[in-house]
Structures are given as structure tokens and as C-alpha cells.
Design a protein that fits this description.
By secondary structure, the chain is an alpha+beta fold. Among the domains are: about 1-80, no CATH class; about 215-305, 2-Layer Sandwich (Alpha-Beta Plaits). Helix content is about 55%, strand content about 10%. It has a 4-stranded antiparallel sheet. A hairpin with a 5-residue loop joins strand 2 (about 260-265) and strand 3. Helix 1 (about 1-10) packs across helix 4 and helix 6 (about 80-95) runs antiparallel to helix 7 (about 100-115). The termini are far apart.
């Protein structure tokens, strides 16, 4: 461990032993180390920069908030997109309440878009857009979401995303505004009034329209009645660091006649609602819950939750 301390101290130029500072969770020390690592990578010394972050990650308790921050920088400075995406996805799933969770979600969406996976990128961007109303990258995420939805000819959701993105775009972003208004003529025949909202997750038809009784009925049948086809989708409310927190939220939902459950044997403990064979039925149930002021997003169901 002494060797680790010497290496880490040399890399960030600290006079005092660094390991004790990292373990103590001092944010200034962590930020200094990550800034040094980024500088090393930018100057062409990627191996040294990544070694620094590897050392910090190895010395940080996975149960501490600092671990998610270290994992984020591990992804930011990764040697390839595959390694970066793995780190970001881990933050989204295992550290959903961490300050970097939203940033990691956006990074995953951007990588998926770059690789041509429009559907997954759209779902992640819609989730980011819905869950992070004050994030500084909201306008950029909305612009990418809008473009991807138009490319998939999902006009109702695309026009809703367009309207919302233009509303949060700063006046200085003239070029971005010009690029987005290019799509405006395609929305003239659609309702993009202030009441419309981009859905939390993908799939299905209209972005902000009303739900029909057949939609809701199909979702209820899919969730409650025994089905021949296996469930593929579920609705997730949030993830919590302790099971006690998740249980309290699930209990409050059940008191409102919403069939909530807690999934997971270790953190994050996810609060979920329903099991659906089709994304369309999941989206219909999502709309019904939204009318009850319950915000959820559609996600794939894991084997442990079936």
C-alpha cells in the first residue's frame, strides 16, 4: 500500500500522503486528482492518467458516494467506448442516486447514438429529459432527442421534444435554434400546444395525447391476467440506496391501490410497478400513472423480476 501512496502522490504532485485524503472523502483532493488525470490524458500520457484513476478507484470504498464519482472519471478517461459505456451503465444501475447518475445516463445515450442504436439512445435521452428539469445539459440532450425522434418518424413525440427544447435553449445558441426550427414545418399538422409533453420513455404512438379506455384496459389485462407470453417490460419509479427507503415508497404506492414492488437483493433497490408483454401496454400504463401524478419510466424486465 505504501507503493500505491508514493505513485499516487507523485502523479498529482501532492506533498502529503494521498491515500488518507482519498479515503477521508475530501472533495477538493478528489477533484485535484481527476483534473490531473484528465491533463495527463489530454497531453498524450493516457497510460499515466488512467493509472491515476485506477488507483483512486481501487482505494475508494464502493459503498461511498465518492466511488460513483471515481467510476465516472474512469469512464471519461477510458481507452475505448466499450469500457466507457460499461462504467456509465454501472453508475446508472448501481448508483442511481449519485450526483453523476444523470451525467452518466446522458453519456450512455450519446454513445448509443454514435453507434447507430437510435431506439436505445432515444429511450435514455427521454428518461434524462424527463428526470432532470434543471440539468445544464438539458438543452443539448433535448436537441439530440428531437433529431433522433424525427429520424425515426415519431412525429408526435418529436414535435413535443422540439417545443420543449426550444423553450430551454439559451438565446446565445443561435445555430442550434436554427437547426431545430428546420423541423418545425413537419409539426404544423400536430398538436404541440403547451400541454403536450415528451414521454418519459419510448415506444407507442402519440407523445402528449390522451389515453383511450382500450389502451388502459390492455395494460391492465397485460399486468394482471395470466399471459401466455413472458413479461418483457416493467415500469420503474426510482432506485434507492437502502431497502427500507424502497419499502416505504412501495408501501405508500400500495396504499393508493398501485401494485408496487421492490426489486433487488442489494443496492440499488428498485421500486417497480407492473409486468407487461409489450412496450405499448407498458406505455399505456405509464400514461395512466402519470394522470395520478406518478412519474415512471419504461424499462426491460430482468429475469430476477419475472
Amino acid at each position: 500500500m505504501h507503493r500505491f501512496t508514493v505513485i499516487l502522490a507523485a502523479l498529482i504532485g501532492a506533498a502529503a500522503p494521498v491515500r488518507s485524503q482519498v479515503v477521508s472523502g475530501q472533495a477538493a483532493t478528489m477533484d485535484s486528482a481527476f483534473a490531473r488525470a484528465r491533463s495527463l490524458v489530454s497531453s498524450g500520457n493516457g497510460a499515466a492518467g488512467r493509472l491515476l484513476v485506477d488507483s483512486i478507484l481501487a482505494a475508494t470504498d464502493p459503498a461511498s458516494p465518492a466511488y460513483a464519482e471515481a467510476l465516472y472519471w474512469h469512464g471519461m478517461l477510458a481507452a475505448n467506448d466499450s469500457d466507457a459505456e460499461r462504467d456509465y451503465r454501472r453508475i446508472v444501475v448501481e448508483y442511481a442516486l449519485a450526483p453523476r447518475a444523470a451525467d452518466a445516463l446522458l453519456q450512455v445515450a450519446q454513445l448509443e447514438s454514435a453507434h447507430g442504436d437510435r431506439s436505445s439512445a432515444t429511450n435514455h435521452l427521454a428518461r434524462f429529459f424527463a428526470e432532470n428539469p434543471s440539468h445544464p445539459e438539458r438543452a443539448r440532450a433535448g436537441a439530440l432527442l428531437t433529431r433522433l425522434l424525427f429520424e425515426q418518424n415519431d412525429l408526435p413525440r418529436a414535435c413535443s421534444a422540439l417545443r420543449q427544447t426550444l423553450a430551454v435553449l439559451p438565446d446565445s445558441a443561435v445555430e442550434s435554434r436554427n437547426q431545430l426550427t428546420y423541423y418545425a414545418p413537419r409539426c404544423t399538422a400536430l398538436d404541440v400546444s403547451p400541454g403536450s409533453r415528451v414521454p418519459v420513455s419510448g415506444g407507442g404512438g402519440g407523445g402528449g395525447g390522451g389515453r383511450t379506455s382500450s389502451d388502459i384496459g390492455g395494460a391492465r389485462r397485460d399486468s394482471v391476467v395470466a399471459r401466455a407470453a413472458p413479461a418483457r417490460y416493467t415500469l420503474q419509479l426510482a432506485a434507492y440506496g437502502t431497502k427500507a427507503e424502497a419499502d416505504r415508497v412501495a408501501e405508500r404506492l400500495r396504499a393508493r391501490d398501485i401494485d408496487a414492488r421492490v426489486v433487488g437483493t442489494k443496492k440499488p433497490f428498485r421500486v417497480r410497478i407492473g409486468r407487461y408483454t409489450t412496450r405499448g401496454n407498458a406505455v399505456a400504463a405509464q400514461r395512466e400513472l402519470r394522470s395520478k401524478k406518478v412519474t415512471v419510466f419504461v424499462t426491460d424486465i430482468e429475469p430476477e423480476d419475472k
